[in-house]
Structures are given as structure tokens and as C-alpha cells.
Write a structure and sequence with these properties.
Its main location: cytoplasm. The chain contains 16 helices and 13 strands. The chain has 410 residues and is α/β, with parallel strands linked by helices. The protein is globular, with a radius of gyration of 26 Å.
């Protein structure tokens, strides 16, 4: 499902544009009529809306799948609204059960603090740090105390909590649900109360938690927030959601050449979805580019543009240009400007063993398989003889399209 725009001649140009930006690539915007009223009030008063995104620092790094919601935050930030990047240092100690069929063990305080140190630095590659409010939910969660926690829990029923899909499935399957797991959506919802949020963003798997925030704001006498859910980005395979465990991800801290090459590896179909969710180009520009491809332009041109845009965002325009040149050089059988250097002794030495000692393969057997497949080059020449022994000298070894080493053999 994708959120649909409801146009109205009564909307001003500014509000209409803000609504279009809000809905771009979104799964749901709830309730849309309330969001329009908030936008109209903001335009009339000049008071920016407060837009919240919370991320639990459960791992030290984030991948570009995580940036789908960050991109939306940046788009709303560019409209002049206040964006709040909330680091869930308290909620991480509980462990988010969303989408899980078992209890997730909470991290230690040391693990949380170590992970949190890198989160904002990485998020700042997308958000404008000078216009971003950084908060930690331990600010108000720790002082709540036992009495406050009990009072908070009294504002939500067990029946409502059991409407949550993952809890319901686990209960029916006879799987355990710990009481502390009920506290997670309550504490995430309480964040919206503490921050007086107008809009909260999250992935589609966070919808229940975001709705709890709306309920609690009403309980505390606040105007309830609207919620905007963004789809989970498919990974490089175009099937599973992007995940490190699936090895179908692009880490935002990966080097420019790797990032560029990975974007180019996605399918032509997936490319357009990535454009919608990851690119900062306008929808009109994307549609024009798509029309050109449908009219006969090589889709690789569009994919190259996307790869350069994403690489430049997390590195620089110069790094993206260099990554493009490096990729082209490799695809033509050329040698990159910068490759690792290795010193190996024992000449004369068999080619498979040399590949292993140069760090290009993990075993002699893998080396031999690569030779059989025509995937090994020495000084740009394909090697087919597995019995080849190399005398002392300097060689550029290549395995596959992307593994190189300059070896000094003695």
C-alpha cells in the first residue's frame, strides 16, 4: 500500500506542496486531514511543526535502508519544520519486540553508549545538523521512576496491547511474552508526550508503537500527533528487506567505490523504487528520467546517476566521480590507481598459493576454481594454467572484477 494524495482547491500552494512532500514514497499518513490542519496552522502562524524520529542504537552502524525515514525527515526539515532526532538510549535497555516472535535481549548500558556515539554522526550525513534537535529519551524516562511508570501503564489496557500483531501471534502460539515488553510501546509513546510531537515517523513495522503515542498524548491532554510510516527498503536482491544478516545491504560507512558498485548492481525495476525513497530529486525529475528510459535511453544512465547521487551524499562529489572512473576501469579490465601491496617470499611459487598469500582467496582450492572459471589475471592477462609457478618479481594480481593486489615476490 502507498499513501495517496487527496488534492483540494482549498489548499494553499504551500500546504499542497508540503502535503505532496509528506506523501512521497510513504506507506500511510494518519490521519491525513489532521496533518493538513497542522500544516495550515503552521503556515498561518509561522510556527514550525515538531517532527520526531526515534532510533534505538542497537548496532554501531546504519545502512541506507535506515535512511529512508531520515530522507523524509530531511525533506520536511527543508520545508522549515523542526526535526527531532531521538536516540532511544532508555528504550534500548528494554528491547523492541516489534516484528519478533521471541523476546529480544536488551543491550548493556556500555553497548548502548558505544553505539549511540556513532548514530548522530551518521544521521548527519542526511540531516542538516545545524537545524536538528538531538534528544535522548533517558532525559525524561529515568526520572519517571517506579511510581511514574505505574501511572503511565494505567493509561493503556492489556486488551489494546494484545491487538498488536506480534504479541497476538506469540500468545496464540503459546510463546512467552514478558511483562517488560509491554513497556516498550508505552515508553516510545511517552517520548511523544515529552517532546510534544506533531508528527512521528517510522517504518511500517512501527505503526502500533506510533499509534500508542497518539493515544498517550490525548491521555495527557495534548493534541495527538499524526503518524507517517515509510516502507522498508528492499535490499540489493530486490526481494528481502535490506539487512546486514541477509548480506544485501549498503552500509553508509562503506568506501565510495564499493557503495557505487553496489548501487549499480540492483535491477532496473528496483532502481525506480530506490529513486523514490532515496533520491533527493523531485518526483517530476524522476518521472522525466523514467520517460526517457521508456523511450529508449539506456537504463544504465539512470542507474549511474542514482549511484553517483547516493555515493556523493555519504562521501563527496569528487569521490563519486572517482568511484565511477574506478568502476569503468575495472569493467574494462583495467587496474585501479590504488590497490593493496603485498610482499610474499618463496619464489618460485604456485599461482593458487600466491593468490592465497596475497589475500585474494581463502584457500588453494578457491584459487584453482577461480582459475578454472577464467577469473584470475596477472598483469591484465587471463591465467588458465593451474600449474603455473611464478619466479621472483613484481606482479599485479586480479581475482574477479574487484579484487586486486600488487605483489612483490622474492
Amino acid at each position: 500500500m502507498t499513501a495517496k494524495s487527496v488534492t483540494s482547491p482549498s489548499l494553499s500552494k504551500g500546504v499542497g506542496h508540503a502535503l505532496e512532500v509528506s506523501l512521497r514514497g510513504a506507506d500511510e499518513l494518519l490521519p491525513q486531514d489532521e496533518w493538513i490542519k497542522k500544516l495550515q496552522r503552521s503556515e498561518a502562524t509561522g510556527q514550525p511543526l515538531r517532527i520526531k524520529l526515534g532510533l534505538d542504537p542497537t548496532a554501531p552502524d546504519i545502512h541506507i535502508g535506515h535512511t529512508v525515514v531520515l530522507n523524509k525527515m530531511r525533506q520536511l526539515q527543508d520545508l522549515g519544520h523542526t526535526v527531532i532526532f531521538l536516540i532511544g538510549d532508555f528504550t534500548t535497555t528494554i528491547g523492541d519486540p516489534s516484528g519478533r516472535n521471541s523476546t529480544r535481549p536488551p543491550l548493556t548500558r556500555e553497548q548502548i553508549e558505544a553505539n549511540a556515539q556513532t548514530y548522530y554522526r551518521q544521521a548527519s550525513m542526511v540531516l542538516d545538523p545545524d537545524r536538528t534537535e538531538i534528544r535522548y529519551n533517558s532525559e525524561w524516562s529515568d526520572p519517571l521512576g517506579a511510581r511514574g511508570m505505574i501511572q503511565l501503564a494505567a493509561k493503556y489496557t492489556v486488551a489494546r496491547m494484545m491487538e498488536r500483531d506480534d504479541f497476538n501471534k506469540r500468545f496464540k502460539a503459546g510463546q512467552s511474552i514478558s511483562v517488560h515488553e509491554f513497556l516498550y510501546p508505552l515508553m516510545q509513546g511517552y517520548d511523544s508526550v515529552a517532546l510534544e510531537s506533531d508528527l512521528e515517523l517510522g517504518g511500517t513495522d512501527q505503526k502500533f508503537n506510533l499509534l500508542v503515542g497518539r493515544h498517550l498524548q490525548q491521555e495527557y491532554g495534548q493534541e495527538p500527533q499524526c503518524i507517517l510510516t515509510m516502507p522498508l527498503l528492499e535490499g540489493l536482491d530486490g526481494v528481502e528487506k535490506m539487512s546486514k544478516s541477509k548480506n544485501n545491504y549498503i552500509g553508509i560507512s562503506e568506501d565510495a567505490s564499493t557503495m557505487y558498485a553496489k548501487v549499480l548492481s540492483i535491477s532496473d525495476v528496483l532502481m525506480w523504487r530506490w529513486y523514490t525513497l532515496l533520491s533527493f530529486r523531485s518526483l517530476a525529475e524522476i518521472e522525466a528520467l523514467k520517460a526517457e528510459v521508456e523511450a529508449g535511453r539506456n537504463p544504465k544512465d539512470a542507474k549511474v546517476a542514482l549511484a553517483k547521487e547516493i555515493t556523493a551524499r555519504f562521501h563527496s562529489a569528487a569521490a563519486a566521480d572517482a568511484a565511477e572512473q574506478d568502476f569503468n576501469n575495472r569493467s574494462k579490465g583495467g587496474i585501479p590507481d590504488e590497490i593493496p601491496e603485498r610482499t610474499v617470499s618463496g619464489a618460485p611459487i604456485g599461482i593458487a598459493l600466491l593468490l592465497k598469500q596475497a589475500g585474494l582467496v581463502e584457500s588453494n582450492g578457491e584459487g584453482n576454481r577461480m582459475i578454472d572459471g577464467g577469473g584470475v589475471r596477472i598483469d591484465s592477462t587471463v591465467i588458465s594454467d593451474k600449474g603455473l609457478k611464478l619466479p621472483a618479481g613484481s606482479y599485479v594480481l586480479q581475482v574477479g572484477k574487484r579484487k586486486f593486489a600488487r605483489v612483490l615476490l622474492s
